[in-house]
Write a structure and sequence with these properties.
Layout (H helix, E strand, L loop, with lengths): L4 H12 L34 E6 L14 H7 L7 E2 L8 E2 L2 E6 L5 E6 L13 H12 L14 E8 L2 E6 L6 H5 L9 H7 L1 H6 L7 E7 L3 E6 L12 E6 L3 H10 L4 E2 L4 H8 L4 E16 L9 H10 L2 H9 L3 E3 L14 H6 L5 H13 L8 E6 L3 H15 L4 E5 L3 H10 L3 E7 L4 H9 L13 H12 L3 H18 L3 E14 L2 E2 L19 E2 L1
Parallel strand pairs: 1-10, 14-15, 14-16
Antiparallel strand pairs: 2-3, 4-5, 5-7, 6-7, 8-9, 9-10, 11-17, 12-16, 12-17, 13-17, 18-19
């Protein structure tokens, strides 16, 4: 028997613990609304149109939900696609979206979803259970190499029960499944359209059921969406949304101050006061679900030797670095699992963190050289995304290494270039991650030997076994111990990564923007169950 949402939530508690366009700002009447940005030159918006411009830190690699790679696509994807459940209002408590209700069997092996019967894709196709099955079959098809596949490995089969009922049969219980189903990378795609156009064509011409539909993508300039007037929750208030890639945070802040964009994520601490001091601007702060860390290759010497990693930990004053770069906009991290999340306890990990100790660093470097692990004058490259904060981390580490006769260069390629390099493996890198508040999403994809986000190329059978068990176990106390053991080995004993900070989400917003709320993952939720972002 299908349960109500209240019953479903109780069960979860046990398991979880485009054509060319130009865009003018706002209604055209508010002096506080941004002026048209350069590059929006093809057609002027009419004075009554609501056109929202949002800065994004990097251009997405693609907009196909099942092939998405990284936060930059996910940040806007929730406006193009809908998922079975929604995490937009509360990232820890799924609400109905394409699924009106769902039932989980007592043994945790069968999930049955009742689907809405009033949903259309942007091209007019009717949404049904066939589209749900097709989406997850494509995710799990090895030929597609979907980055999301590892989150759904427990699915044996997706069965169409009838036109608006779909069943997921699992091989083993999977505590994080419902949260995984609410991530934008599980956005439902239209079976008939993809089969007709092919997956490659769909990458740059996406079709979903979301509140906004794809119009245009001008590389390195903008991605444009326009409202889906037939959206099943409500008609979106905005006519169009323009996402502009602006990699430099100082440029992002300047664009907000000058009126080039309405919403500016990734605001740096030094820009908060001057933005918040403007009558027409505001700062929104949300406790975040994003981290920053320094990673080492676990497959290449000398980086795979824990002594080298400990030496780096000792040769850099990471506490001072964190304070100098992020100030009050972040808190020091000691674990890979977010605070207030199952398994996110940090007291023991904090005690295991290494202090700034140049003498101890020199002793470890001398040992590595004596053992032939590290050559005198060794050189390599530290990689980072085009983010000043992470670049500063890489530069600080490179500077410290030179004091020990290790020549480290720093490179910051654009994301589309850097991602395949990271997947192939680099010696050392300064990166970040963001996800939902379940420990599986923060560990399996980062440390399991089969994951394409295991940039450190950790290949440890013990860790693999623990992470696999963490997915099967539904007892929260047992899960907590599993993830504690994973963190202790990787972060407090082997130092595969040096966790740096948990970031607050800090977003600058023009006062003409109504009903917008910053997201812990830095997503842009423009239409939710409770909100409909507009311009006044």
């Amino acid at each position: 028997m299908l349960h109500t949402l209240r019953r479903t939530t109780a069960l979860l508690a046990v398991l979880l613990g485009a054509t060319a366009l130009v865009f003018a700002g706002g209604s055209g009447e508010d002096e506080a609304a941004p002026a048209p940005a350069q590059g929006d030159t093809a057609q002027q918006a009419t004075p009554t149109e609501q056109v929202l411009r949002i800065g994004i830190a990097q251009e997405p690699a693609n907009l196909n939900s099942i092939l998405m790679t990284g936060i930059y696509a996910e940040a806007l994807a929730g406006n193009l696609y809908d998922t079975l459940v929604s995490l937009k209002e509360d990232s820890a408590n799924p609400q109905p979206l394409l699924a009106e209700s769902w039932d989980i069997s007592d043994d945790g092996l069968t999930y049955t979803f009742n689907l809405r019967d009033d949903v259309l894709f942007h091209n007019g196709e009717a949404f049904s259970a066939e589209d749900v099955k097709f989406t997850f079959d494509q995710i799990l098809d090895e030929a597609n190499a979907s980055p999301s596949a590892e989150f759904f490995q427990q699915i044996d089969e997706v069965v169409v029960v009838d036109e608006y009922t779909v069943r997921f049969d699992l091989s083993s219980p999977y505590a994080a499944l419902i949260l995984a189903l609410g991530n934008p990378t599980a956005g439902i795609i239209p079976k008939d359209t993809v089969e007709e156009t092919g997956m490659d064509a769909f990458d740059r011409n996406p079709v979903g059921t979301g509140p906004y539909q794809f119009v245009e993508w001008v590389p390195d300039d903008r991605v444009v969406l326009e409202k889906n007037a037939d959206y099943f929750i409500t008609e979106p208030a905005l006519d169009r949304v323009v996402f502009r890639p602006i990699p430099q945070p100082e440029t992002m802040a300047a664009e907000l101050l000058a009126g080039g964009i309405h919403i500016a994520p990734n605001i740096m601490p030094q820009d908060i006061d001057r933005i918040d001091g403007r009558d027409n601007l505001r700062i929104e702060v949300e406790p975040g679900l994003s981290n920053r860390y320094l990673g080492f290759s676990d497959a290449e010497m000398p980086f795979a030797d824990p002594r080298f990693r400990k030496a780096v930990y000792h040769m850099v004053d990471f506490d001072a670095m964190v304070e100098g770069i992020w100030g009050d906009s972040a808190q020091r991290a000691y674990s890979w699992i977010p605070p207030n999340t199952l398994g996110g306890e940090t007291a023991e990990l904090e005690r295991a963190a290494l202090s700034y100790n140049p003498d101890q660093a020199q002793q470890l470097i001398d040992e590595l050289r004596a053992d032939g692990v590290l050559e005198e004058g060794f050189s390599f490259t530290i990689y980072s995304v085009q983010d000043p904060a992470r670049s500063r981390v890489a530069q600080a580490v490179a500077t410290a290494l030179r004091d020990y006769n290790i020549d480290a260069a720093v490179e910051t390629p654009e994301w589309g270039t850097l991602l395949p390099m990271l997947e192939e493996g680099v010696p050392m890198y300064a990166m970040g991650w963001g996800s939902v508040p379940d420990p599986d999403r923060w560990t399996y994809r980062i440390f399991h030997s089969t994951s394409n986000r295991n940039f450190s190329r950790v290949d440890d059978p013990e860790i693999d076994a623990l992470l696999e068990e963490g997915r099967r176990v539904t007892d929260n106390d047992k899960r907590r111990q599993i993830y504690h053991d994973v963190m202790m080995k990787l972060v407090a004993e082997e130092y595969v990564h040096i966790p740096l900070v948990w970031l607050n989400t800090i977003v600058g917003v023009n006062e003409s923007v109504q009903d917008f709320k910053a997201s812990p993952q830095n997503y842009f939720h423009l239409v939710t169950e409770e909100r409909n972002v507009s311009l006044q």
